[in-house]
Sequence to fold (408 residues):
Amino acid sequence: MRKAVLVSLDALFDRDLAFLKPDGGLRRQLDAGTSCDQVKTVFPSLTYPAHTTLITGCDPRLTGIGHNQPFQPDKEKAQRAWYWDRSCVRVDTLFDAVRRSGGTSSSILWPVTGKNRNIRWALPEVLALPGENQALKMMSYGSPLWILRMEMKYGHLRTGIGEPGLSDFATAVMLDVIRSRQPDLTAVHLVDLDEMRHLHGVFSREAMEAVARHEDRVAALEETLRTVKGMEDALLIVVSDHGQEDITRTVELRSLLREHGLDKVILPQSNGMTAYFFSVTDDENALSGAYRYLDEHREQFGISRMYNAVDLCAMHCVQGPVFAAEGAPGVVFSDLLEPFKREAATHGFGPSGSAVNCLFSVSGKGIRSGARLPSMPMRDVAPTIAELMGISLLDAEGVSHASEFLAK
Fold:
């Protein structure tokens, strides 16, 4: 089995590559290896569905992860659980495949990995709900003694879960576990750029500074892999999950549905720039009528396009919603139970979004240098990684492009 380090740069997309420093770590990574900057993200373009696809090779319809959170219409935002547990994922993952092959893994803030016994050193992404303790919850979902040691060594790098401190902390933990444990698979999720874009806008100064910080983090990882015995031949893999688009209008769907008499038929779940609709009735005529009404009043509801059940199936959408809507350019949806968004930019868009193209880059011994691959769906990433590592994913529906990454 070949070792690999998998780094997710949340919210990086193809247009960011024009802003990379010529001598930066990410630019060197692209020049040293083979990459694709036209990896089409999943529908909807949310962090948890995308990251689950990235480690399973399956779209949301098979993974069961079609949102960051289950649909919880009766709960306030602060009370809503997220998809934190590995048990929520219905298919095989790269972490499971490594363990079956006799290897070890480390996961640092990678979504939907909580309570995964196949991850030896796990610091999961979980959030304490009201009445819960953040530190205790993380340790109960991950590797408690290891988490405690990492917190004692590197906890000073962050203040709560704010950025860029959280990504600095996660990077320090990643480098530490590589130096001390040399896992066969190390996966880390860095959120710095995503948060800066949400707060300040897609191409804001703060977002560009986050891109530069990511370049420095990749450079530190490159240096670590060069100098740690046993990691010299490891694959360095950089991926991303979605881009973002700037917000110009917030549409509060829940109150609009009530105003137009549709709340007894359907309830919305905001995906950001798209929305799911769930039925609250078995009356097919009423559901068809609600769909037609939204389609006929798209401008009033801030909708550019409606997606019916056939459309959702074609987009490999998770089962559950009866139909969905994509917002008009710049529209973000709210569903009343969460406060109005004060973000400058967001994601969750559909296949027509301007930031659907993500990155998949691999460098290391035996990998072609400077090669660029054409467009691929996100479900192809995990089977490609698996073949390059020499492990097997049991359920992947994507196809491997490993032969295109290897030097002839």
About this structure: The longest strand covers residues 34-40. The CA atoms of residues 193 and 210 lie 5 Å apart. The chain is about 35% helix and 20% strand. The radius of gyration is 21 Å.
